[in-house]
Amino acid sequence: MATLEITWTFSTPVLGTAPSNTKIYSDYIAKEAIEAGVVNGNRLQEELDSLPTDEDRGSTVFRRDTDGNACFIDYMIKGFFKDTCTAQRRFDVSLSKGIAAHKAKINDVLFITPQFIPILNQDGSTPAITMFERPLRADTPQGPRVALASSEMIAAGTQIQFTLENFATKLISKDVIKEWLNYGRMRGLGQFRNGGYGRGRFVITGQSGNW
Q1: What average pLDDT score do residues 141-170 get?
Q2: Quick one: DSSP state of residue 126?
Q3: Structural domains of the chain ordered from first start
Q4: In terms of DSSP H, where are the helices of the chain?
Q5: Which of 15, 72, 110, 113 is the most exposed place for a label (fewest CB within 10 A)?
């Protein structure tokens, strides 16, 4: 096994991803994650407890850790890796092109800790959370429709820190992982990534094992 200690600093604001209504979360979001094998059923209550409100206010929010900090969950980092590897496999030149069945490999050999990854200011303090509203446009059989989406937002300059454990460095090398993380300059974490939110830059602050 080999490990990397990673700090990700957001260069653009980041938006919350979880629905504020716990029933929506348990009935749809978490249910799909369990069926896909991303979330163990035993973790569902922990994730429900991490939601800050049970109000049906039609907004997306950040989950909270036990200290009340807005946070990401470990499998969201793995989801970023899968999404990034899928995109980079389309590039003319990338290390990711050589990884077959990449989603299964990421699931099986890469692990992220802690489970709840707090979003903090660079001095370790708790950042302010504001609300961000934006229009959502869609073409429907009844014609164009516009709805208003609302999300909790944390400003650029904040950070997350996590440990990546790799149980098969011959399958997924450090250079491949750095390629994925580097793509975060263009495609970020959290909600509305296509709009440029959640972008960031990474630093490897420590490592162990045989890379």
Answers
A1: 88
A2: P
A3: 2-16+66-125+154-208 (3.30.70), 18-61 (no CATH)
A4: 22-24, 30-35, 44-50, 74-88, 102-109, 174-182
A5: 113
